[in-house]
Design a protein that fits this description.
heterodimer; A: 560 residues; alpha+beta; B: 289 residues; mainly alpha; 13 helices; elongated
Chain lengths: 560, 289
């Protein structure tokens, strides 16, 4: 690759090199408008020590720096372009290579990361970020406001057509930019190298959370454009680890501590981080139990019983709530499922506690437990066959037969859950049959209502905000609302809740939406997927959050 | 060398030992299929109240009175295997008979009528032979939807071609046999010759193919069920039981029991296929008489 083709080299000759000359720099910045841009040396040397109290994320203390941590994954392939990382091994490792304006701490709470200060205008429409001094990319170049602007613009650009394109819909000029009538995203500007301004067209309380997810982390444009498709396996960002080697044939990446990381005086703990993918779940268990790897997040539910039975292993295990929402939509447009009493009866008929064996936390909610708006006291459906029978009788339904579609039959747990449901439904007089399909619900889409009365669905939340569920799962015409459910009242409440800036008020609004949804019962409410996490004896300070999963910058190993 | 060639009288009506073993195995599974309630100890579809341990894990063989243990849903594995024989035997017999009926029709039509009919039918048969039949079965079931009728017809559809080709050769040979020439010279018509003088001679071959094809059918259905294209849960199909056990790392009985049942039935059917023409009760000579 001829790196001289990179935009930053063209714009600012010598910018990234030690032989950088003041003349060349001034000529370049004058030509491109990057006035005020600073060279690497200037940032690296002038960056003031970071106060550890301002470092976002879970707490850490003690431990020894050094050593290598190994995390292993099921995925068959990886892609480290933040917009194209759709697997677990890649998406949940992005924060090791990249960082952004904000970072999602425990509770998925957004905290300032590469931005050291934020000012929000009184009308809630203007967000002004001041960047930390001394942030460097892994290639040695300073990260400036223009990089943040370009990265956000890339994430929502029509050329990328990424899954996060709509997340910035409230940014001024988004519609024009996405439609192609504007060349730039007008609402995001970089007035100087350390200031980024985001102008909204309507208040959006989600903005800081959105900026905290990996697709909006900052990227070095010259690397993205210069590497082309190779960027997918050559992550270059500002994160705590820097790519050392990528071995696709062996399904392995080794990353080393980034010596110029913005929090280098404190983090990361590990000298090296190894990521292995293509590791079967049972093998993951064996490797971690023998301390040959340090962390698996994919222990099969079938092994959990054995782990829990052994106190030594049990201490290294935890079942974590994910942001993978699990629900079974009902065909609400088809009689008798258009009758709310029948839908409620189905919810009452199923003993959800029995589903807990299969990698599910059967909360009976649509919101994951740690999500804003989750209300522990919400009226979820208990297992009450008598009430279910009474509701069916009240609705005049007898001898009901229903067909359950088990999509994505590659996962044995879906069929197991369906079989338990068949038994419970039979107990209230509903004869249910199962049909397994290899396809996912997303493959079949709107055709599902032509074939099934109920089917399994899952949604991995990309944005840790309930608005994503309202708009996609049960909002009218939502992307995953294949059952055709429509409630104008919920649609209106959801639209209004996006603009509520007070967190408590917003949580109450979303709790109200879930309560209305529960009463309407358009689904069989199940809960969230659970991640069975298993650690080696040497891995310490494990912390987990469903948005980013792991925090490898602050884990350490005992034999460092 | 009188001992080298056993007399016809000595061999008639007597089963070879391997065939006898095969017959015994098959008979056991047929019994299980016909009267599963007599052998099974529990309802195969119901999760039993004591079917799981306190930790919520399946019970191993012998635990809490479960002979072959329980599965992940707390159902009795022994009862499921016994009821699973119903599916296996059904699949071994019904699509097999349909497939052999198609094969016989094609072979008789092509072998006796010859000419353009033979060319068309045999090229069609050869075309079927080169197709990836398992994938075609998957595609057909995925398109129509899995049901017992679909599976039976699909298995018949994908497995008639090989016996048709072999039977066709036999029909051609018999078409020139002296007894057929004799019948023809006596004025017998094509239909009569085909039905009375050729078809009965195919019977021993059909019996052998029936047993061979039966094992193939059972394996094919188990493979389809394993991939989710066969009998649907909660039916106790052995292929489904194997599919359900594929992540049961610490519970080998969940794999061994249905796997062994499958293997035993297939071995039994194959051994049964070792019945010689002399051994079979459908002896062609007897039919001719």
């Amino acid at each position: 690759m001829d790196r001289s083709d990179n935009w930053i080299d063209r714009a600012v000759p010598g910018f990234r090199h030690a032989a950088f000359s003041r003349r060349a720099f001034l000529a370049g910045t004058a030509a491109t408008g990057l006035v005020g841009a600073l060279p690497r040396q200037s940032y690296a040397q002038s960056g003031a020590p970071v106060d550890p109290a301002t470092i976002p994320g879970p707490a850490w203390s003690g431990g020894t720096r050094g050593g290598r941590g190994i995390n292993i994954w099921l995925d068959g392939s990886v892609n480290f372009d933040p917009l194209l990382a759709f697997g677990r091994a890649d998406y949940y490792n992005l924060s090791n290579f990249y960082r952004g304006l904000t970072f999602l701490a425990l509770g998925s709470e957004p905290q300032l990361d590469l931005a050291e200060a934020l000012t929000i205008s009184d009308d809630g429409l203007t967000y002004t970020f001041t960047l930390r001094d001394g942030v460097l990319f892994h290639n040695g170049r300073a990260a400036v406001a223009e990089d943040f602007r370009w990265s956000i613009e890339r994430a929502v650009s029509p050329a990328q057509a990424s899954w996060v394109q709509g997340f910035m819909a409230s940014v001024a000029g988004h519609a024009e930019f996405v439609a192609g009538t504007s060349a730039t995203l007008a609402g995001v500007t970089a007035p100087d190298v350390r200031t980024l301004v985001i102008q909204l067209s309507s208040p959006d309380a989600r903005l800081l959370s959105i900026l905290g997810i990996p697709p909006f982390y900052v990227l070095p444009r010259e690397e993205v454009e210069g590497l082309g498709e190779a960027f997918r396996e050559t992550p270059v960002g500002t994160g705590p680890y820097r790519l050392q080697s990528y071995d696709g044939a062996s399904s392995q990446i080794v990353a080393s501590r980034f010596e110029d990381y913005i929090y280098r005086d404190h983090l990361p703990y590990l000298d090296e981080l190894e990521i292995r993918w293509n590791v079967p779940a049972d093998l993951q268990y064996l490797q971690v139990s023998r301390n040959e790897a340090d962390l698996s997040m994919a222990i099969p539910s079938s092994i959990v019983g054995e782990i829990k039975a052994d106190p030594a292993l049990s201490a290294r295990f935890s079942a974590e709530n994910s942001f993978d929402v699990e629900w079974w939509p009902l065909n609400v447009l088809k009689p008798p499922f258009d009758d709310v009493r029948v839908r409620q009866a189905i919810n009452l008929a199923i003993d959800k506690t029995r589903l807990a064996t299969f990698g599910t936390n059967p909360t009976g909610h649509i919101y994951p437990p740690s999500l804003l708006g989750f209300d522990q006291t919400a009226p979820v459906y208990p297992h009450d066959p008598d009430r279910a029978r009474a509701l069916l009788a009240e609705a005049g339904v007898t001898g009901l037969a229903m067909k359950i579609g088990v999509l994505d039959s590659a996962s044995a747990d879906n069929a197991r859950m369906a079989q338990l449901m068949v038994q419970d439904l039979q107990a209230v007089g509903i004869a249910a049959t199962i049909e397994q399909r290899q396809e996912t619900s997303y493959d079949l889409g709107s055709a599902l209502v032509d074939e099934y009365d109920m089917w399994n669905m899952g949604w991995g939340m990309g944005l840790p905000d309930p608005s994503e569920l309202v708009s996609n799962l049960f909002g009218t015409g939502g992307a995953a609302n294949f059952g055709g459910y429509s409630n104008p009242g919920i649609d209106a409440q959801g639209a209004a809740a996006i603009g509520i800036t007070d967190r408590a008020e917003r949580a109450a609004a979303y709790a109200g939406i879930e309560a209305a949804l529960l009463a309407d019962a358009p689904f069989l409410f199940v809960g969230v997927g659970q991640l069975n996490s298993f650690r080696s004896e040497r891995l310490q300070n494990f912390a987990y959050d469903p948005a980013l999963w792991t925090y490898w910058d602050r884990y350490w190993v005992t034999d460092a | 060398m009188p001992d080298a060639q056993p007399s016809r009288r000595a061999g008639r009506g007597r089963l070879r030992p391997d065939a006898a073993i095969g017959l015994a195995i098959v008979a056991f599974f047929v019994l299980a299929a016909v009267a599963p309630g007599v052998i099974a100890t529990h309802d195969p579809l119901v999760s039993l109240p004591n079917g799981l341990t306190e930790a919520g894990t399946p019970r191993p063989p012998g635990d809490a009175g479960f002979l072959l243990g329980t599965d992940v849903l707390g159902r009795d594995v022994f009862s499921r295997v016994v009821h699973g024989a119903q599916v296996a035997v059904l699949i071994a017999v019904v699509p097999n008979l349909i497939a052999l009926a198609i094969a016989t029709l094609v072979a008789l039509a092509a072998g006796y009528l010859r000419g353009a009919v033979e060319v068309v039918l045999m090229r069609l048969t050869e075309a079927f032979l080169v197709l990836p039949l398992f994938l075609i079965a998957m595609a057909v079931i995925a398109t129509i939807g899995p049901s017992t009728a679909t599976i039976v017809l699909t298995l018949a559809f994908v497995s008639w071609s090989y016996p048709a080709r072999v039977l066709h050769g036999e029909v051609r040979r018999l078409g020139n046999a002296p007894h057929v020439e004799a019948a023809r010279s006596l004025g017998a018509g094509s239909l009569r010759i085909t039905l009375r003088h050729i078809l009965p001679h195919l019977t021993p071959l059909l019996v052998v193919y029936f047993s061979m094809n039966a094992a193939y059918m059972v394996m094919l259905e188990a493979g389809l069920a394993f991939l989710g294209f066969g009998v649907q849960p909660p039916a106790p199909s052995w292929g489904l039981m194997l599919a359900d056990a594929r992540d049961q790392f610490f519970r080998p009985w969940l794999i061994i029991v249905p796997g062994l049942s499958l293997a035993l039935l297939c071995i039994g059917l194959s051994l049964l296929g070792n019945l010689s023409e002399r051994d079979t009760p459908f002896n062609s000579r007897r039919v001719l008489l």
